[in-house]
Amino acid sequence: MRRNLRALPKAHLHLHFTGSLTPATLRKLAGTQGIRLPESLTDNVALRVPASERGWFRFQRSYDAARQVVRTEATMRLIVREAARNDRADGSRRLEIQIDPTSYAPFVGGITPALEIVLDEARAVSRSLGISIGVIVAASRTHHPLDARTLARLAVRYAGDQPGQVVGFGLSNDERRGNSADWAPAFAIARRGGLKLVPHAGELRGPAHIRQVLDTLHPDRLGHGVRAAEGPALLRRIVDEGVALEVCPASNVSLGVYADVTRVPLRTLYDAGAQIALGADDPLLFLARLTRQYELVRDELGFSDAELADLARQSIAASFAPESEKRTWIGEVDAWLATAPADTYPPHPAAARF
Ligand SMILES: [Zn+2]
What whole-number distance in Å separates Cα of residue 204 and Cα of residue 216? Predict the structure, then answer.
């Protein structure tokens, strides 16, 4: 007897722009443009690579191939709309979608229009689909830290906690690239401009690097952060400082961080009192959307419905939505937990199920 996890209200705080696409939409977009996709994007098999630089290279090559189909404003708008629709079908009340506008700038006239297109569509979709969408601008570790300062200044111009505004500033790509401290000036610009800070860390590198990111970038949340479980003192610090962790179990397995979901140290993080928000990261490549993360945590890690509701509450609390909305959604989680569990429940018809 279990409750419907798709109906569990939650917030989705770790989702990348092109990585949010469904394989079917990607194939359609490629088809209409006559673009040939590599087999890794068409075989309907979740990516599995070792957590080495070679493994990351394979992941990045697939991601770049997918990004090839994103060359128009219409496609960018479609990505936001579909991400919102799929998230809503997964019970998400709040989506914070992450984008590096640099990647799409050449096709739409620069980084400013690239970001404005996403913000404009996020605003429209928030109204029409009943999901609140905040945008996170993410710099890439593969670019010069000075580029990150430019992005931070751009992001700050659109800062705010209303749908279609920029709520946060991130740092993505291979965590082993560059020295995190070099991005401190960009993060300081973002902080001064009112943005929350959400760099990736604690996925491919362990506690020493997480400590450096905490010391130099002063994050509000960590993208992943799972490997904080390897350092008890560090984990206590994360809990004490209230830094939330965006944990993406299916992604961790796909990218070889853990051999399978049973090895993801979610229980350690949870029991230590860390604030956790489950996320899908790049469902296009890992073939697992938001609800699937909760299912994996239930099936593979033995979380009860009460604990899953707690994770959902934590995801909402860790979002950067206005407090009044968070209270409403948390009340909806309580209502979900108050419903009686059933033997079976119907799948959501609108959802792309992987
Ligand atoms: Zn990520």
Answer: 18
| Euclidean distance between CA atoms 320 and 316, whole angstroms | 8
Per residue in 134-156, pLDDT (tens digit) is: 999 999 999 999 999 999 999 99
Q: Are 306 and 344 in contact (CB under 8 A)?
A: no
Taking the centre of ligand 1 as the mean of its atom positions, its distance from the CA of residue 341, in whole angstroms, is 33
Beta strands in the chain (DSSP E): 10-16, 92-99, 132-140, 166-172, 196-201, 221-224, 244-247, 276-278
**Which of the residues are catalytic?**
203
d(CA 291, CA 352): 11
Q: Indicate whether this model's pTM tops 0.85.
A: yes
What sign for the dihedral angle of Cα 224, 226, 145, 141? negative
Measure 138 CA to ligand 1 centroid, in angstroms: 10
State how far Cα 332 lies from the chain centre: 22
Which residue shows structure tokens 């605003």? 123
How many Å apart are CA 196 and CA 104, to the nearest integer? 23
What is Dmax (Cα atoms) for the chain?
A: 55
d(CA 166, CA 164): 7
- Output the DSSP codes for 18-87: GGGS-HHHHHHHHHHHTPPPPGGGTS-------SSHHHHHHHHHHHHHHHTT--SHHHHHHHHHHHHHHH
Rg from Cα positions in the chain: 19
